[in-house]
Amino acid sequence: MDVIALVGGSGTGKSHRALVVAHEHNIDAIIDDGLLIKNSKIIAGRSAKNEASKIMAVKRAIFMEEAHAQEVREAILAATPKRILILGTSINMIEKIIKVLGLPSCVKVIKIEEIATPAEISKARESRLKDGKHVIPVPTIELKPHFSGYFIDPLEIFFKKPKSRRLKIGEKSIVRPIFSYYGKLLISDAAIATIVDYITTTDPLIPRASQINVKNSHDDEKGISIHLDVTVKYGTSLWDIAYQAQRRIKDMVEHMTGLMVKEVNISVKRLSID
Hints:
There is one protein chain. The chain is an alpha/beta fold and 274 residues long. The protein folds into 2 domains: 2-180, no CATH class; 189-272, 2-Layer Sandwich (Alpha-Beta Plaits). It contains 9 helices and 12 strands. It has helices at residues 14-24, 54-61, 66-79, 91-101, 112-115, 118-131, 140-143, 189-201, 238-257, and strands spanning 2-7, 29-32, 35-38, 41-45, 83-88, 106-111, 134-136, 150-160, 166-176, 208-216, 224-233, 261-272. It has a 6-stranded mixed beta sheet, with helices on both faces. A 3-stranded antiparallel beta sheet has the order 7-9-8. It has a 3-stranded mixed beta sheet with strand order 10-11-12, covered by helices on one side. The longest helix has 20 residues, at 238-257. It is elongated and about 75 Å long.
């Protein structure tokens, strides 16, 4: 079994590029933040991103809990991967993981600076610090039984081939773990409705919005539904006006609140002749 390390500081984009690195080096298993991943499935472990604090997340990532480490050791023996990619913030962290899991010494170290440009690393860090976004290199559907954090987006991963062809190699998920926040943040439906009202009426062709109803299940994975009535100026394309309003509402509410907007239903109830 060969062990390959992908090393880079926190938030530099290691998990974001893990699937591409695995594809390029014929790696069939990944160890990332406490999880053992094979064939885009979590086969053992628990995500450090599911912990309530950064300290607990670090302990989880280096398998300090014996039961956690034993589970992953047994899964590695059963899965018999030929090559494992271990993600870590330093060589020291990689060596700790290798030791606790009883793995062979690392045969190759890939630094994030070798596979990402300074601009890409800077953008990844900004996303981590500003939005609290973390990546787990498995499909969102696979995370549901394992992860209770904030699901943002499933993203398909493509590998560039010669002559501009692209090969799909997998899917990853963006999450917002609990420890990305300081305390609990609640956004009332009334606040969301105010945003919707303002954004809708910024279009001079929609002089008025009313009956704004926000259905918030408080389940971040399901998202929220927004329903509203509008008055539109006579002589304009009602479909175009309503469609553009839907897009503006969805984009701005998601940008301002971090909540996922599942649907925006607009009813054109009146026409303005003025």
